[in-house]
Amino acid sequence: MPQDSAPDRPEEDARRLTKAGRADRRHLRGQASLQRIIDATIATIAEEGLPGVTMQRIARRIASSNALVVFHFGNKDQLFRAVIEYLNDQFARHWETHVRAPGLTTPERLVAALDCARSFSRLHPDWVAAWVIFASDRQTMLIDHSISLPSDRAYLDEVRTMLAEVAAAGGRVVDVDSLAEGLNYLVQGAWYWDTVNLDRPPSDALRKTGLSLLRQAFPQEFAGF
Questions:
Q1: pTM above 0.70, yes or no
Q2: How far apart are CA 84 and CA 171, in angstroms?
Q3: With contact defined as beta carbons under 8 Å apart, do 120 and 112 qualify?
Q4: For domain 76-225, which architecture applies?
Q5: What is the phi/psi pair of residue 198, to 5°?
Q6: What is the spatial distance between Cα 175 and Cα 148, in angstroms, rounded to a whole number?
Q7: Are 187 and 209 in contact (CB under 8 A)?
Q8: 153-162 confidence digits (pLDDT tens)
Q9: How far is CA 166 from the centre of its chain?
Q10: What is the DSSP letter of 8?
Q11: For all residues of the chain together, what is the average pLDDT?
């Protein structure tokens, strides 16, 4: 004979939902704490450099305990690693939005790559300053290279591929490797220069110089920019 179905257990279901809700709230609070610590670390590095960063100072900056910072990150190297990963993620989103936007022609994507670097620096000067300091300091250079260098090379390869597409479409013989490297040097140099010259107004030199190089290599394709 068929067995009766199990009776409803509304009280047990309610307890499970309440427990799940508490877990979600704890997770959200934990994520918010992580972000506050990362934001405070970036601001401290941009203002004072790496020597200004201690677990205690970051804790004071977010009005919390040193134990909370240690709980989330363990030590300063792990904190630095998390900050660099965060910066990489943010730039990747910026690149996706600007350079890989649907409907752009390849020349438009190349100009967008220049504008992406410029707008990221202008929107988030503290992020770029912290990133430049990480890459320039012997203490954190290896950490930054292990996280940032693969992405940097991927962006460079993407630019190189776009340049090759423009050259092939126009039947031009262009040293796309040197041109891609040159554009990359412009970006890296502009970020460093802007970081060490915070008292100077923002410059359009990155975009103007990059466009000059592109027009020299592809006069017809970039005449309208």
A1: yes
A2: 41
A3: no
A4: Orthogonal Bundle (1.10)
A5: -65, -20
A6: 26
A7: no
A8: 999 999 999 9
A9: 27
A10: P
A11: 89
> Between vectors from CA 133 to CA 121 and to CA 70, what angle results, nearest 5°?
110
Beta carbons of 187 and 206 less than 8 angstroms apart? yes
Q: 84-105: per-residue pLDDT in tens?
A: 999 999 999 999 999 999 999 9
Is the distance from CB of 180 to CB of 199 less than 8 angstroms?
Answer: no
Structure tokens at 142: 């290896």
In the DSSP assignment, the letter for residue 200 is S
CA dihedral 216, 217, 222, 225 (to 10 degrees): -40
The identity of residue 76, as a single letter, is K
- Domain borders along the chain are 1-74, 76-225
Residue 172 · residue 218 · CB < 8 Å: yes
Dihedral sign, CA of 166, 171, 172, 176?
positive
CA atoms in the 13 A half-sphere facing the CB of 216 = 11
